[in-house]
Design a protein that fits this description.
heterodimer; A: 211 residues; alpha/beta; Rossmann fold; 5-stranded parallel β-sheet; 5 strands; 13% strand; B: Ubiquitin-like (UB roll); Ubiquitin-like (UB roll); Nucleotidyltransferase, domain 5; 5 domains; 6-stranded mixed β-sheet
């Protein structure tokens, strides 16, 4: 690995946003292949962050700042990535369901997925079932829904029903997550996957697109 | 001059129920000891003996003899019950002192028995003691007509008497020999009779054992705990206080889960309301028994609580509180009939609920602001009440901003490995001196867990000695750290020393949980500051209210970054200010107007959609 790309890798793991951005600029200026920067610098770093989280060494705060550093670098890298270069596993439309404004967890999942190479359509918060339906029509592989309140998670079921009624259910995989959400609830509403945390959400998403 | 080999005597003073202990040399008054201990004892005259507001009660130990000032200020009953003025009493031994709620920081002291104190009872309900001429062959007017005529003579030209009073009126007048005390509500022009009570005569007292009459009932309905007070409406004195757990806990630990319960069950709202009111009625029974009175003497009530508690109490729908944009049904103040709610007081008693501010900043926050009198502050003040939701207000240069942060139940012990509520055996204080971990538990029992103030101290200390780094990682750098199941943890109490035979530890996961909680709170403060164009350094007063706020160590809170790093003297811990505010609202119409003004003036900020929140939260997560 080129030393600069290694610095990007370490910078992301340590959550050094400004440093990562500087090093991405340096790497691009040095003519390093953007795909290498992406795969070896960023995706590999985020995989390591996820691993450390799952091992109990990193917790949500570290994940958040690492993901942010990755995003900072990614924003500078994206314009340089050519269409065919990135082997994106898929496109995900992600949002917090209607009636719910919480987005920190949802944002973290989005960043982890992006860090794994997925293309992200972030629908924001308070997202109506209709908006999820439209996202499917626009062409995504996965719908990812987040809810933080026991009073709003019912809208996950409403969204699944909306997709069924629009005849689109078979065209997309649905995964859900959030503090009050459980594996059992996911099964109950007919979702395809459940992400217990932002790191494992990546594994779930990967499994859903290869299934 | 004392013998140079004789050291000054030191006494231990224990102030309850706040739980502050201090050692002071002989020769200092209880008031001075309270000041040293940082206990906010009211002393309007500054300790010169002229205001009588520093009343405390001696529980154990010896104090200097009663002074002439005390003999003239305190009533005979008070003296007999051990009541003293803190500025006049000097400990002669170690003492334990009870500070009644009304002696703890109420910046605006409301009590009539004073000498020229510029605060007053501004009654909503007043007693009218009358004698109605009995009917006779030459006066065949109805009881109500004669009653109203008597009242008109006493200056009440226009009076309404509602159904419940009518039902009992005739019988009661005759039983009381035509002499009665009426509770009149609403002022001279247009009063309503809200109670018929016996006259508080000495004979009655002997007969019934009741000594207190004409009372009000104030309650702070917390999500977890209820704090109830019985107040003498004629002079504003708190006669008794009692607490209870909120019975709704069985239907949901936090507000959102109770809303979910109400959403999912057709009778959910009713059940939650009935359980709460049943407990309130039990508190009334308890308070009346303690003071020696009957519930019919309670002619007015005030209930404060967060918006969800408010709505559930009043029988209002809560569904819309559980979904964005989280708006209340009503934010104006309300006056309900106690019996419509099932609250068993004087049959026609009213319940006043002050205004709410938003879906998650409620009437209790308004009551707290009222008691702290910060709304009119000219300086920059932050007030916060920490709980599962932490409500924060910032007053600065005429602007008043409020927000609600999801701090979560970490400080109640939830999601903490050995976490527990503040109960006997909970580690509540931690200090680490080199290799030795010094802990203090509630009740002095062997430790069985850690409560909110304990985990706060533990993490602050671990940070201070470098076992925890800025990002929250834990290092094996101390004799008390160990590996367990592949993870590092810090042992606060070894298995042999604990009360249950297992070590009491702080884990890395606990650190994370506290990071999230304190990050939310600090982010809330920073967002409000940003919106007001201020920085933390501009804060001149930082007021911490609520139960947890009373017990937490300010130094620890500042060290971990939950509170901004300000000079310690800018902080104030004020206990249950909402309860104080509720009592102010009980006895003063002026304070009700002020509460309404406060609610109008507040700008509510929704943190989850504020552009600065995410950034501030990330920053605040680190130590």
């Amino acid at each position: 690995m080129h030393p600069t790309i290694n610095e990007i890798y370490e910078g992301i793991i340590n959550g050094q946003n400004a440093f990562v951005q500087q090093k991405v600029k340096d790497a691009l200026a040095a003519g390093l292949p953007p795909a290498d920067i992406l795969n070896q610098g960023m995706i590999a770093a985020m995989a390591e962050v996820g691993k450390r989280f799952e091992e109990g060494e990193y917790y949500v705060p570290e994940m958040l700042i690492a993901a942010r550093a990755m995003q900072g670098g990614m924003a500078l890298l994206k314009p340089h990535l050519k269409q065919g270069e990135i082997k994106s596993p898929g496109k995900v439309a992600i949002g917090t369901v209607k009636g719910d404004l919480h987005d920190i967890g949802k944002n973290l999942v989005a960043m982890m997925l992006e860090g794994a190479g997925f293309e992200i359509m972030d629908l924001g918060t308070d997202v109506t079932p209709q908006k999820f339906v439209e996202a499917v029509r626009a062409g995504v592989n996965i719908i990812a829904m987040s809810a933080l309140l026991t009073t709003t998670m019912t809208n996950m079921k409403v969204t699944v029903t909306a997709l069924e009624e629009a005849g689109l259910r078979g065209q997309v995989k649905i995964m859900i997550g959030g503090a009050p959400v459980t594996e059992a609830y996911a099964k109950q509403i007919g979702a395809d996957g459940y992400g217990v945390d932002a790191s494992r959400a990546v594994g779930v998403a990967k499994a859903l697109v290869t299934a | 001059m004392t013998d140079s080999t004789q050291y000054p005597k030191i006494f231990h003073i224990d102030f309850e129920p706040v739980g502050r202990r201090v050692e002071v040399p002989a020769g200092l008054t209880l008031l001075e000891a309270a000041q040293i201990a940082g206990v906010e004892l009211v002393a309007i005259c500054g300790g010169s003996g002229s205001c009588g507001t520093c009343r405390v009660r001696l529980m154990q130990g010896e104090l200097s003899a009663l002074t002439l000032v005390e003999e003239s200020e305190l009533s005979r009953e008070e003296i007999l019950s051990g009541c003293r003025m803190a500025c006049q009493s000097l400990p002669l031994s170690d003492v334990r002192v009870d500070i009644p709620p009304e002696s703890l920081t109420a910046p605006q002291r409301l009590q009539v028995e004073g000498q020229g104190i510029d605060v007053s009872v501004d009654p909503i309900v007043v007693p009218a003691d009358i004698h109605v001429a009995p009917p006779g062959l030459y006066d065949l007017r109805s009881d109500v007509t004669r009653l109203k005529a008597t009242l008109a003579e006493q200056g009440y030209p226009s009076v309404t008497i509602e159904q419940t009073i009518l039902t009992d009126l005739s019988e009661q007048l005759r039983a009381q020999n035509w002499s009665t005390r009426l509770a009149m509500r609403g002022g001279i022009l247009g009063s309503e009779v809200v109670g018929i009570l016996p006259l508080p005569t000495d004979d009655l007292r002997k007969e019934t054992g009741h000594t207190s009459t004409f009372l009000g009932f104030a309650v702070d309905v917390g999500t977890t705990k209820l704090a109830a007070y019985l107040v003498d409406l004629t002079n504003g004195m708190t006669l008794a206080k009692a607490g209870a757990m909120n019975p709704q806990i069985g239907y949901g630990e936090d507000v959102v889960s109770r809303i979910a319960y109400a959403n999912e069950h057709s009778d959910g709202r009713c059940v939650l309301q009935e359980r709460l009111v049943a407990t309130l009625n039990q508190l009334v029974t308890e308070l009346c028994a303690e003071v020696g009175t009957s519930r019919e003497q309670i002619v007015e009530a005030v209930i404060v609580g967060n918006t969800a508690m408010h709505h559930l109490f009043a029988g209002l729908p809560v569904r819309q509180l559980g979904a964005a944009p989280y708006v209340p049904v009503v934010s104006d103040s309300l006056e309900l009939r106690a019996r419509d709610i099932g609250l068993d007081l004087s049959p026609a008693a009213r319940v006043y609920l002050p205004p709410n501010i938003a879906g998650y900043v409620g009437a209790d926050h308004v009551a707290m602001l009222l008691a702290m009198d910060v709304a009119r502050a000219r300086h920059t003040v932050v007030t916060l009440d920490i709980g599962t939701n932490t409500e924060i207000s910032l007053v600065s240069e005429g602007r008043h901003l409020s927000c609600s942060c999801a701090s979560g139940p970490a400080f109640e012990g939830a999601h903490i490995h050995d976490g527990m509520r503040a109960a006997p055996g909970a580690i509540e204080r931690v200090r680490i001196m080199d290799a030795i971990v010094r802990i203090h538990t509630i009740g002095g029992l062997a430790p069985v867990g850690i409560c909110g103030s304990g985990i706060l101290d533990a993490i602050a200390e671990l940070l201070r000695i470098g076992v925890i780094d800025r990002r929250g990682g834990m290092m094996e750098k101390h004799p008390q750290t160990r590996q367990h199941n592949g993870k590092v943890e810090f042992v606060l109490a070894n298995a042999e020393a604990s009360g249950h035979g297992r070590a009491v530890v702080v884990t890395r996961s606990d650190v994370n949980t506290i990071q999230l909680a304190k990050g939310a709170i600090r982010a809330g403060v920073e967002v409000l500051l940003k919106d007001a164009g201020k920085t933390a350094a501009d804060i001149q007063e930082f007021i911490v209210a609520g139960a947890f706020g009373t017990y937490l160590d300010l130094g620890s809170a500042v060290r971990i970054g939950m509170f901004p790093d300000l000079p310690i003297d800018r902080f104030r811990q004020v206990g249950n200010a909402a309860g104080t505010g509720a009592r102010q609202l009980l006895i003063s119409a002026a304070r009700r107007k002020e509460a309404e003004r406060i609610a109008q003036q507040v700008e509510y900020i929704e943190l989850t959609t504020h552009p600065a929140f995410t950034e501030e939260f990330y920053k605040a997560l680190m130590f």
